[in-house]
Design brief:
Blueprint: H1 2-9, H2 12-15, H3 26-38, H4 43-51, E1 55-57, H5 60-79, H6 85-105, E2 107-109
Antiparallel strand pairs: 1-2
Helix pairs in contact: 3-4, 5-6
């Protein structure tokens, strides 16, 4: 019955009735914040998902931005008619490598 009431309200947050306080050292907190940001999640959602062993996908928005930048770089390369081609090629390779690294590490399953 409570689940039906929560559905009527339309808020998953209000259906969560329990809170927990957790203490982190400065180093731990920095790591948690960094990982939450990489997953494009608020820290609370990141900690909840990690505690429940849910998959935490890192950075689909980062991959999209890198692809956009790669497209711009390719456009500049094409427009330059070969001037500075070695530099453009290095940047394109670095962008491609970054996308592959992020994509290969994207689904991170945390377990308690």
């Amino acid at each position: 019955m409570k689940a039906a009431a929560a559905d009527r309200r339309g808020s998953e947050t209000r259906a969560r009735q329990h809170q927990v306080a957790v203490r982190f050292s400065d180093a731990e907190w920095a790591r948690v914040e960094k990982k939450a940001a990489a997953a494009d999640l608020p820290v609370t959602a990141y900690v909840r998902d990690a505690a429940l062993g849910r998959e935490i996908a890192a950075g689909s928005h980062v991959i999209a931005e890198l692809r956009r930048l790669g497209g711009l770089q390719k456009h500049l390369f094409t427009e330059s008619h070969g001037i500075g081609s070695a530099e453009y090629a290095k940047v394109l390779v670095a962008i491609t490598d970054a996308i592959e690294r992020i994509a290969s590490s994207a689904p991170v399953t945390t377990t308690a």
